[in-house]
Amino acid sequence: MAMSRDARPGVEGLFRDMADNCARLDAPTYADLSAHVADRLPTHEVLQWMFEPYADARIADMVPLRFFAAVQRLCLEREAPGLALFYATLGGTPPSTPAARDACRAALLDIVEAHAPALARGMEWFPQTNEVGRSVALLAILRETVDAWGLPVRLHEIGASAGLSLRADALADAGVVPAERPGIGPGPDIVERVGCDIAPLDPFRAEDRLLLTSFIWPDHVERFERLRRALDVAQEVPASLVAEDALRHVRALRLVPGSVLVVWHSAMWMYLDPQERHAIENALAALGATATSDAPLVHVALEPVSEVAGEQHVFHLRVASWPGLGEVPAGMTVTRATATPSGLPISWTVPCVGAVVHDDRGRLLVIQRGKEPAKGLWSVPGGRVHAGEPFSAAVAREVREETGLDVSVGDMLGSAASPAPDGATYDIRDFRAHVVGSPVPRPGDDADDARWVGRAELRDLPMAPGLLDALAEWRVLPTAP
Ligand SMILES: C[S@@+](CC[C@H](N)C(=O)[O-])C[C@H]1O[C@@H](n2cnc3c(N)ncnc32)[C@H](O)[C@@H]1O
How far apart are CA 81 and CA 213, in angstroms? Predict the structure, then answer.
C-alpha cells in the first residue's frame, strides 16, 4: 500500500515503498533492487553512510528515485557496465531468474562501493522528468479548442521541465506519441510556445538530456525511446523556457485578441502548497473574467486525482474555459479523461448528467437507484448521455424516464468525476431543472422509487457517495424542512 507524500518511514521504509510502486507500475527490475537495498541497509556500511542524511526524509523527497537516477547516470556514462547488462533501456536483459537477480543485485552494490561519493553528490539532484506521453492528452484538447474557437493557440506551460509537451503537435506528427482522437478538429496552429519552471532543463544541453534520461526506469523501454526521440524533436521546434515560479508566470499572463491562450500543466500541482494552487486558480479566474470569444482562455491539467495513498497513480485530465463552451459555464472544470502517470493509455470519461429539481415547496426530487453503480442508494435523477445528444436534452430525457416528470433544463451547476463499475470514469454534469406540468413522480427505467424530499428525509436516506457534499457546495439542498 502506497504511503502519503508526507510520511517519513525511514530510509528502509522509503525503499520498500519504492519497491511497491515499481511492482505496481510494471518495473520489476527496480522493484527487486529497491527491496534488496531495503534488505541490505541494516548491515551495509556504505549504504548506511550514503543514506544517513536522509534518515528523516519524506516520501515526497523521492530519495530512492534520486539514488537510482544517480546510479543510472553512471550506467549511461559507461561507468557501470556490469549493471547496464540488466537495464532493458540500455540494451540489457532484465533479470528474470534467481541467478540473474542475484547478479544484478551484486552489480548494484559493486557500484555503490566503487562510486559512493559520486552517488551521494548525484542524489542531491531532485527528480526531473518530462513525460511526453502526457502531451497526447494536451494535443486532444488543443484540437477541440481549435475546433471550438477557430483561433491560433498561444501555449503556456507551468512546471514545464524541458518543455517537451510544448511540442505536442510536432511529437504526434513525428510519430513519437500517438495522435489521440485525430478525428477531432484540425491540428492546432501554435503561434507561441512558452514554458516556465523553477529548474528548467535545456534539450540542447548534454547534461540536461542525461539528467532527464536517468530518471526513466530501466524496464520502461518505450518511455525511454519516446524521451530520446522527443529530445530530438524539441531541437527542431523552438520554444522558450523561463526560470520562473508558476504563480509569477500565471500572474503575468495576458490575453491577446485573435488567439486563444491555453495554460497547461502536468505532474507539477503536487509540488505546490495549497495557497499557491489557490492563488494560481484565482489568477486564471481573474484573467478569464477578461476573456472574450476573440481572446479566450483555456486551462488544461493532467494531474493525480488525489494525493491520498494508492490514488497518486491515477491522473485526471481536467479542462476549464473562459468564456464557457457549449453547456459548460465559464471557468467550470470538467474531467475529460483519466490516464496513467506516463500519460498513456488515456481513457476518456463517459458523459453523464444529473438533474437538480426542486418543487415550489423547496423539496428536492430524488430517486432510488435500481441498477449499479450505487444500486439501492438514493440520488438525483440522471444517467448516461447518448452519442450526439446535448447534455441538457439528456437531463430532460433522464428525468422523464426515471420519474415521469417533464422538465425545462437550466444552467449547469457543477460536475463530478466518479468511478464506473467497468473501470471507466463517469463525467457527471449536474444541471438545474424545473418541472413543467404534473409534479407527481412515477418511478421508471433505472429508478425503483422517486419522491420529493425535504432536509430531514434527505438526511435519513442512504445517499450515493459524494452527492450531498456536491449539493451543499452548489447551495441546492432542499429548503423545505
Ligand atoms: C514531475 S515534473 C513534470 C514535468 C512536466 N510537466 C511533465 O509532465 O513531464 C515537475 C516539474 O515541476 C517543476 N516545478 C515544481 N514546482 C514549481 C513551481 N512552483 N513553479 C514552476 N515549476 C515548478 C519542477 O521543477 C519539475 O520540472
Answer: 17
Contact between 59 and 6 under an 8 Å Cβ cutoff? The reply is: yes
Q: What is the pLDDT of residues 47-84, one digit of tens each?
A: 999 999 999 999 989 999 999 999 999 999 999 999 99
Coil, helix or strand at residue 132: helix
Please determine, for residue 185, whether its predicted confidence score (pLDDT) is greater than 70. no
Which of ligand 1's atoms lies nearest the C-alpha of 196? Answer: 21
CA 402 to CA 441: how far, in whole Å?
A: 9
pLDDT attached to residue 308: 56
In this predicted structure, the answer to whether residue 463 has a pLDDT above a threshold of 70 is: yes
Pick the CATH number of 350-473 from 3.40.640.10, 3.30.43.10, 3.40.50.2300, 3.90.79.10: 3.90.79.10
| Residue 277 near ligand 1, beta carbon < 6 Å | no
Residue type, 434: H
Identify the residue whose cell numbers are 422523464: 400
**Which residue puts its alpha carbon closest to atom 16 of ligand 1?**
271
Which atom of ligand 1 lies at the shortest distance from residue 134's CA?
Answer: 8
Q: Give the H/E segment covering residue 357.
A: strand 350-357
Say how many Å lie between the CA of residue 160 and the centre of ligand 1: 6
Total-model pTM? 0.90
Q: Ligand 1 center to residue 43 CA distance, Å? A: 36
Q: Ligand 1: does its nearest atom lie under 6 Å from the Cβ of 230?
A: no
Evaluate whether 127 touches 66 at the Cβ level (below 8 Å): yes
* Ligand 1 atom nearest to CA at 201: 27
- The CB of 198 under 6 Å from ligand 1? The reply is yes
Q: Which CATH class is domain 132-348?
A: alpha beta
CA of 187 to the centre of ligand 1 (A): 26
